[in-house]
Amino acid sequence: RALWDGQQLRLRGGAAVSAPAWFSAALPPVALDGELWLGRGQFDAVSGLVRSARIEDPTWRVLRYLVFELPGADGSFAQRAQRLRQLSGASPQGLWQAVMQNEVKDRSALLSKLAQVTAGGGEGLMLHRADAPYQTGRSGALLKLKPVHDADATVLAHLPGRGRHQGRLGALLVRTESGAEFRLGTGFSDALRDAPPPVGAVLTYTHRGHTPSGLPRFASFLRLRPLGT
What is the number of other CB atoms lying within 10 angstroms of the CB of residue 38? Predict the structure, then answer.
């Protein structure tokens, strides 16, 4: 995620991105909100590039800034999206592009689009009301739609908590059915943190795909698998 204020490219947390001068010069003098993009499954590569400040890296030549919003602009989302298309069409080098927006007429069309995107390696969809004015923060006019996967893992160890969880479970070290080991630290109730699943227990966790190294993304405890199943 990257924000352009008309002069400086920044990460969502506010840190400045050390982009090459020629890259910044290709962006328009208006605020933009979007993502730096190398392709699906390339998040780690993009993150490493922008945080390393290697402005001479040739990867910048293939990176694109995909924009989906005009922060603070007037009009409905549909009108802002049209304005974005007009602005990006005038970009001489194509270094930044307006994200394609698709209107869906019903639930069936929405689920079909979600299946198409996830089959191609995408994480999901962003749903935006076409008539919505620009808003900051969370809003019912903008929703994420992502499929949630689940899988089983075996508890290997209990890892101590810190802060509010001092003296009880902080995370479980678990092993997946494929042999990958990772820390599972979210999704637990206070009761489970006080009396965690025993070593050797099998649990089910949810996740949203995998990292390039094969570890689950955004893993969260779902439930214990009953004994004997």
Answer: 15
User: What is the C-alpha to C-alpha distance for residues 167 and 18, in angstroms, rounded to an integer?
Assistant: 42
pTM score: 0.68
The predicted-structure confidence for 57-77, as pLDDT tens digits, reads as follows 889 989 999 999 999 999 999
Beta-carbon contacts of residue 47 (< 8 Å; ≥ 6 apart):
none
Tell me what the mean pLDDT of segment 200-211 comes to.
Answer: 90
Q: What is the mean pLDDT of the chain?
A: 89
Tell me the CB-side half-sphere exposure of residue 154, using CA atoms within 13 A: 9
The per-residue pLDDT for range 151-168, each reduced to its tens digit, is: 999 999 999 999 889 999
Tell me how far the alpha carbon of residue 211 is from its chain's centroid. 12
- The band of 41, judged by pLDDT with boundaries at 50, 70 and 90, is confident
Q: Which of 36, 28, 30, 29 is nearest to 12 (CA)?
A: 36
In DSSP terms, 85 is beta-bridged to none
At 138, give phi and psi (nearest 5°): -70, 145
User: Residues 75, 77, 82, 87: what is their CA dihedral angle, to the nearest 10 degrees?
Assistant: 80
